[in-house]
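Good morning,

Both structures are done.
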Amino acid sequence: MTKLRVWAPNAAQVALEIHNQRLPMHAEPKGWWSISTHLAVPGTDYAFVLDDRKSLPDPRSPWQPHGVHGPSRIVDHDSFAWSDGQWNPPPLSSAVVYELHVGTFTQSGTFEAAIERLQHLKDLGVTHVELMPVAEFSGDRGWGYDGVDIYAPHHAYGGPEGLKRLVDACHARGLAVILDVVYNHFGPAGNYLAQFGPYQTSHYQTPWGDALNFDGPGSDEVRRFLCDNAVMWLRDYHFDALRLDAIHAIVDTSAIHFLEQLAVEVAALEGRLGRHLALIAESNLNDPRIVRSIQAGGYGIDAQWSDDFHHALHAWLTGEQSGYYEDFGSLAQLAKALCNAFVYDGGYSRYRNRRHGRPLGGLGAHRFLGYLQTHDQIGNRASGERSSMLMNVNYLKIGAALVMTAPFIPMLFEGEEWGASTPFLYFSGHPDPELGQAVSEGRKREFASFGWKPDEIPDPQASETFVRSKLDWSEIGREPHTELLQWHRGLIRLRKRTPELADGRFDGIHVTFDEQARWLTMSRGPLIVMVNFAQQQQTLPLTGAENYKLLLASHPDIAIDGPSPRMPGESVAVVRTL
């Protein structure tokens, strides 16, 4: 006999629909319903019926083989033959993270196909593979941030079995795996949760609609729903870490914040499993409490993305200052980001028209991920341009060098390592024509204020938009892609074999720069990263040493003999003082 349970406080009666039968379920305290039946075996489809209305998927459905509107399917997680019994991931402090989208990483766009490219990541020097959300969402293509069946790996990618094979294959190659999860909203299509209970609340709003109910009536079970989901990914799918999407959209006035509760439960699971687990947040709050320990009054999240570093680096390299880049664009801000993570740590933000952030308060750099590109920073652009479309090869090398030699945990986005020429566009595949039209029109309105004409915006619903976003792996064998790939491999090797680059202390970093002359140096102990952003050759006025050993250079004409290295235009070098 198998027991099935569902939380449905909004229903007066609930039935299990299985094998063309409707079996009444028994009411339990606090809005729960249950039934024990021999019909519920692995591989069986089932649904719940509330108050004799239409059948609905299980809110905790482990598999939706027919999409968000179809029945759920029972999965036996114990039946998978894992081969990673001795696996334990490397610590985040030593990580090189690689973010990828399963649907565009390969032409086939499946978990199984991704396995075929894992050796490339291993050869590159990656330690952690981060998957964009894979929970069931509407249609057969999308970014994944509009999921509704958050316990079910997407059917088009390969379902539960395919995902387990991918994670197991990563572990077999020494690669840890991070999963991007969304705990701030649910998608619009296939979202039946409101019929079951108060999963969402209109009391708070997010950019994507109603917020999740973290602190209102019934919120205990909503929090339980999300914490159990996190535990499931880490326990049943063997993920090593979770990346928490846009936690600034989580509104929780409870005495114990949801993030703190989640951190406590993941720490307890870590003890039970005997392997390292981690939580990484995306946040635009510039609030160090997110990554401060619970004992010190924080939420206990292990690390967070560092958008200030990205914005400062991107704005300086491209000259862009529209939207949120309005707050950036100076070399002084890039220098501050390298030494402090937060450029805005209590100062005035023109973009927000208010003060923003607060000081770090002694946190180290390993609490932050640093990057030149992410899915957001590319895909939120109207045409999905990567850095390779916005800057030349010299600047791509400089950007990569600063990411890999900065004190943060470095992260790359799929294809960045070879300067992929394919865009990463915003795409969706909603079968509902009205919803699809609304998404397409919304995208046009979003960029109209930036001067874009409607016919210039790639249609998110068009299959061509998705296909254009797939990586072209044949580029690796052509220039300048081969050169950029070798550059990234060399930078990662240097990072791994150089102790100073593994040091996550901000107090060991010293940055000098000249805004007008356009050069910057970053010292990390005896190691110095020298950057000439200007087009013309310059002699950098270094002091403190007479000679240097060249460790890595982007240009063959870099001369380091004597106390004043000569740097060709748009070049970067890493040296050690002698």
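Second structure follows.
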Amino acid sequence: MADRPEIESKGVIDSEGAIEVRRALASAWLAIDPDAETAAAISAALEADDDTSLGRWFDGRIAFGTAGLRAEMAPGPTGMNRLVVRQTTAGLVAWLAERSGRPTLVVGHDARHRSAVFAADVAEVAASHGATVLFIDRPEPTPVVAHELLRRGADAAVVITASHNPPADNGYKLYLGDGVQLSSPADAEISARIDRVVAETPEAIGAGGGSIETVGTDAAEAHRASVVAALGGGPREVTVVYSAMHGVGGAHVVEAMAAAGFAPPIVVDEQFSPDPDFPTVAFPNPEEDGAMDLALDLAERVDADVVVANDPDADRLAVAVVDAGAWRRLSGDEVGSLLAAEMVDRHVAAGGGPAIVASSLVSSSLIDRIAEAGGVEPIRTLTGFKWIARPIVDRSDATFLFGYEEALGYCVGDLVRDKDGISALLVVLGMVAADRAVGRSLTDRLDDLALRHGWHRTRPVTIRFDGEMGLQRRSSVLSGLVASPPTELGGLDVIEVADLSAGGALPPTPGLVLRVGDARGSVRAVIRPSGTEPKLKAYLETVEAVADESDLDASRGRADDRLARVADALGGFMGA
């Protein structure tokens, strides 16, 4: 998620009074900072009158965003550090205790720098405030922790992870007792409780009365057993290349594949073991260009059937297949559509009944057509799995089959009420093995969907705003687009404009929807700020009818040409 915290540094305030206030805040923080490294940095900045650093660290406070807290590891309330973790935990447990007496909290972590230290702080502080802590004392995938929360019936779970962020970042991901990520209004209530801790007991030390139980390997074994049991039967012969992207998914995936009856994957050795520096990739995100190059090269050498990769905390999944003689990474929308079709088909074959699928507003509309064809209700949500998984809880009248977002996040069933790159991986391998047994492939499945529903071609456009003022520049550009949207793009007229901040079918959210086109077809463009990074993103989709099998290539070409025209023009507007 985030490259930087979800706040904008106010920079140096020239007022002498304001500078003194900031220095006083820094001195007070220094007096209670439990970490020698961050304390030394603050002390050095105070001695050097380094108001630029002090402003970056102390002007504001890190806030709950798309997936909890996430920021660069740095001193002060704007960064991820031990005191922020301790204060956050004290506020969280106090909020939980007001609702459930003595709460039970599951705590886990990934293998990033300082993740183990932060997780130990969460456990210690939670116990000191009277909580029962179920402490997973080794690095594990995020889905393992989310599954353990439901298995134990706990009141909340905390995972110390920054998912696929750069090495300098870390985060505090929070689930409540229903198994879904923190959302409103609980986020505001917990934030207010944290503020009380900061004001009343800033060091966040409680009186004790709780306990810490070490969970060990039980959590991983339980998650693995659940996802394997849900997979079902079918062929298992498939040659797999797998990358853990320097994260914590490797051993878990290998064992899950074995338990499901698959042969061991051929792993990318350079990326298999956890390494918080992510040395072989610029960004440890399988979405990023180049991140899967080692895996694709290996797949070419061993003549693999499929390449699969997780991100560092194994909640996302990337898939690559051979297409027209060359390896190609499937888009998140393509994988999401394939998984949705598989889960809907399984549901129909099992007898049907009320069921739902969910996807974010920026994902392909193909999932809606797939669902409707199978008698399943499609639900659209805001971006982020705290919204995509919410129907699992809110719609108890229907079976939740599948949810996804185009950023490689997939929720297969409701064993984990969040994205799970491991359960999705097993389902994908089952599909590849079933196709292989009859001489077909995942690309054949995509062609089948196009013949049935038309090509739903998607394409992202991303503009990154680097530098300390990146978030502010991003907001300024988006505000300009909303105030004065383009009237044409790539020679095509803008025929519809909708301001997402005005609300409507979905709650208000920053963003803009454009529909661009002519009599031959249109492109939908959803433009919104990343919830976690200094980026402005546009999610483009066009739908092109397919006359018959002989028209597959030509119709896809028409759709892609239309997307390219709009994408090239829109990139200029977004980068203004």
